[in-house]
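Holo prediction — S-adenosyl-L-homocysteine.
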Amino acid sequence: MDEVPRHLFVDEAMAHRAYDDTALPIGHGQTISQPYIVARMTEMLMAEGVPDSVLEVGTGSGYQAAVLSRLVPQVYTVERIKTLCKVAQDRFRGLQYTNINLRHSDGYGGWPIASPAEFPAIISTAASLDIPQALLEQLAPGGTLVIPVGADGDDQILQCVTKDSAGNTQVHNMEMVRFVPLRSGVQA
Ligand code: SAH
């Protein structure tokens, strides 16, 4: 996190608050997560070691993906709002974070192409009422999925889901959090 310039992931008008430990608005009613939460979710994903790849749902500003890209060889990230995708893509290019693969699509479907079919780590940075089925299916055996679960505006619980080699999943409740909701469909 020390390596990733967070001030480049927020509007210039917000740059003076970029190193506060707080979430900030990024437009379109969305937010860049609080650094503490970025660290905590990243740590949960790596509890069993550094995965070869990670899928993120909810690119937003691109900050969480950028942090992951400094640790994980390949980062796949999906965002439903096209404008946010474009801005994030420009940031990745400017910083030469070439191991981030970004798509404009609905993350309820996970990563929308056949390859890779499974991920050893999946993170959702938007909250869902239930864990999306596609994310459970695209989690590799031995993998970890981190996702906030709960209603919009309500207290949500950060869940860490692990899948064993037989394909059975176990859910661990981590801590209370507050995230913007996952929404289905894409937006221009
Ligand atoms: N990880 C981001 C946090 C962004 S907030 C960051 O570091 O800045 C959550 C993001 O999830 C928003 O940008 C929102 O548009 C996106 N989102 C919500 N539902 C989605 C869906 N179904 N598929 C993909 N992205 C989604």
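READOUT: The first helix runs from residue 35 to 45.
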